[in-house]
Amino acid sequence: MSDPNKKIATCLCGVVKIRVANVDPKFTVCHCSSCRKWGGGPLFMMQCGTNVEFEGRDAISEYDSSDWASRGFCQKCGTHLFSRFKKTGSYNVPVGLLPDTENLEMSMQYFSDLRPDYYCFSNNTPEMTEAEIYAYFSPDV
User: Fold this and answer.
1) How many domains does the structure of the chain reveal?
2) pTM for this one?
3) Where do the DSSP E strands lie in the chain?
4) 3: region left, alpha or beta (phi > 0 left; psi from -120 to 50 alpha)
5) Which residues form the domain of 45?
6) CA-to-CA distance for 109 and 130, rounded, in angstroms?
7) pLDDT (tens digit, 9 = 90+) per residue, 4-55?
């Protein structure tokens, strides 16, 4: 039986359910071209660690999107479900899947130098550029 204290997220069609034990309300925003292509704009993600359970796993496709992460989505409705870091197995889940999370706060913007001119945020947050991201995730570090 699943832990009743876990937060539950679902895709649009309800086939996939995600149970998350730990949600960090300090979310990140990614401006890379992959995230913007995937969702039509910047991607807002919350760190959820490795204690994540999936129901409806047969409906999940995972795309190997970079050297360090993959992205999961529902095959039936296309909902973006997670990004998973390959090295740690840690999941990030889109903020929109867990909208009732309390004390949400933008804590970091990734690929800030790739942010297009047609949008901006008033939040004063730390930012990492493309070069900083690649240096951080480089296997040589």
Assistant:
1) 1
2) 0.86
3) 7-10, 17-20, 26-30, 43-49, 52-55, 60-63, 69-74, 80-85, 91-94, 105-110, 127-128
4) beta
5) 7-137
6) 11
7) 678 999 999 999 999 999 999 999 999 999 999 999 999 999 999 999 999 9
Element (H, E) at 1: none
Q: Which of 115, 38, 111, 124 is nearest to 81 (CA)?
A: 38
Question: Rounded CA gap, 92 and 79, in Å?
Answer: 14
Under DSSP, the state recorded for 27 is E
Structure tokens at 40: 């039509």
In a domain? residue 1 = no
Q: Show Cβ contacts of residue 12 under 8 Å, excluding neighbours closer than 6 positions.
A: 74, 77, 78, 79
Identify whether 37 is part of a domain: yes
CB 95 within 8 A of CB 35: no
Q: What is the CATH number of the domain that holds 12?
A: 2.170.150.70
106 part of a folded domain: yes
What is the C-alpha to C-alpha distance for residues 78 and 37, in angstroms, rounded to an integer? 14
Q: Do the domain assignments include residue 2?
A: no
Using only C-alpha atoms, the chain has a radius of gyration, in whole angstroms, of 15
Tell me the one-letter amino acid at 91: Y
Instruction: Give residue for tokens 């899947």.
Output: 97
